[in-house]
Backbone:
């Protein structure tokens, strides 16, 4: 049974986008102090979103996604004191998660611990984790899944941030450590590659 | 152009190909417990953190023992004519 968390403060943050400035400021302040209730709130607010983001980046592998989400939140806890509030909390978490995903693929390349084909195998292990919408997968959707998974990691990441997370280019830049112009270029190349994978003529 | 895929179609395709996923509840609970435990350790005042508390306690004990020995010798010295 889950151990009840010690809550010393309750923030009114059901979703990040709708929180009041005062609550948010207090939340950030407590987060930087690594107050357990702020950490709990951070986790409860973002864990599912971060999991979903990572899950699709690593080819929908439940086990790998769990490891990376765990590493992400532990790293966030360790570096919370350094959070300077220059970006949104979610952007900050995404950038940690993004780095962890890149680290995972670097490690994988070096150690060959996890086979890439296994990591990219769609839906076999993780079917039960798709909490929302076990949508009837049409042939077109399946093609899109495969096309996305076969793209290089940075293309996959930028497409996920842009079209699934619906983030502005500026924010994607903060997460990926690139300028907005560089992100635009990356997006153009990623779209072109995706269209090619889908065997559809690209624009221009 | 026949078969041309627009940006909106890319968005739609990717959204349908990548529906929101959620972690298993057991994993979520376990990680939350772990984070809370770590956070409680990190949010203590510095002097109460085990990393500092152990050497400080050891130093205090050593000083107390040293003082005891010194006091014993001092008392002995005063008693011996």
Residues:
């Amino acid at each position: 049974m889950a151990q009840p968390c010690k809550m010393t403060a309750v923030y009114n943050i059901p979703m990040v986008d709708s929180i009041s400035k005062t609550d948010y400021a207090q939340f950030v302040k407590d987060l930087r102090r690594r107050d357990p209730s702020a950490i709990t709130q951070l986790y409860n607010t973002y864990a599912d979103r971060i999991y979903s983001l990572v899950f699709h980046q690593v080819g929908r592998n439940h086990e790998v996604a769990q490891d990376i989400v765990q590493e992400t939140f532990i790293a966030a806890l360790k570096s919370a004191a350094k959070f300077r509030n220059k970006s949104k909390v979610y952007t900050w978490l995404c950038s940690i998660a993004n780095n962890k995903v890149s680290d995972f693929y670097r490690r994988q390349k070096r150690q060959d611990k996890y086979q890439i084909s296994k990591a990219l195998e769609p839906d076999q292990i993780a079917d039960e984790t798709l909490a929302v919408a076990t949508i009837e997968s049409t042939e077109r959707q399946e093609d899109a899944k495969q096309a996305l998974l076969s793209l290089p990691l940075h293309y996959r990441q930028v497409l996920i941030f842009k079209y699934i997370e619906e983030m502005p280019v500026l924010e994607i830049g903060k997460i990926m450590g690139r300028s907005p112009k560089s992100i635009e270029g990356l997006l153009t190349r990623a779209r072109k590659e995706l269209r090619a994978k889908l065997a559809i003529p690209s624009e221009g | 152009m026949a078969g041309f895929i627009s940006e909106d179609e890319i968005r739609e395709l990717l959204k349908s190909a990548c529906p929101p996923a959620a972690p298993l509840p057991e994993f979520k609970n376990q990680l939350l417990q772990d984070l809370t435990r770590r956070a409680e350790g990190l949010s203590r005042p510095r002097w109460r953190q085990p990393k500092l508390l152990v050497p400080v306690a050891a130093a205090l004990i050593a000083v107390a023992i040293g003082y005891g020995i010194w006091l014993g010798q001092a008392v002995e010295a005063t008693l011996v004519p």
Remarks:
- Residues 89-111 of chain A form the longest helix (23 residues).
